[in-house]
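Request:
Um, any thoughts?
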Amino acid sequence: MIDLVAFADRLPEAGETLVGTRFLQGFGGKGANQAVAAARLGAAVAMVNAVGDDPNGRAIIANLAAQGVAVDEVAIIPGTSGVAPIWVDGAGMNRIIIIPGTNQLVDADRAAAAVRRLRPAVVVGQFEIPQAATRAAFGAAREIGATTILNPAPGARIEPGLLAATDWLVPNETEFAQIGGRPLTGSLDDQAAAITTLGSDLDIALVVTLGERGVALRQRGESVVWIPAPAVRVVDTTGAGDASVGAFAVGLGLGWSPAAAAALGCAAGSDSVTRAGTQTSYPDRAAAAALLAHVGATRLPS
């Protein structure tokens, strides 16, 4: 997708027009963001998706290739590539509307065939493409023994077949409620109970991203583990969740424990909010390597 980001001290009320402070246009899309975040951390990454036969589609493919993401499985089909108008207020919080465009035309059989051909260690999916395509890709991932991570965003009901093929579910607080969980309010014990209940009801392992509060990790049949976020100055939260998902996938791919992988995701998401933009907020390869080494040194057994 192409991100169209408008910044303002506050966001307009209904019927109100405001003068903003600045504007950025850049590359986004949840899957692309997660792929770029993982590639910056040194992972071998391939994108399976579709773009339109328009200038934006050609630019998206060129950007992914420049970021070190393999694009052989990105289809170019007639239509308009996705865009995401984004508003960011003075506190760095965002409001986003996505127009999926050709993301809605990703073919399920092609997605599954790509996974079988690529044979990755981890397959990550989101809701910006049809759930049927992600379900097929996750089914192929199960065949080859790959770990599957589903980021249920934008929030929606999860199709049973997709849920059955998912190893890790990674929602934020809003998506957690949208997929059937209770709002994460009250004491930590109350929130832990809500996470445990949803994990048990869905029979799924969960990593719930909580913004400045870090992440909550619950493996099947285990207690909730709270992983705090580093204290940072927030500039723009756009893309932070995607940085976290991409880094979590890298950690699992490296064979780290789920807690260590979640801590890497938390660190990557916290780092990204200190800079404006989406993929532009992610660290370069040198800084990403330093982040990976730091989390590895502090979270892995010596």
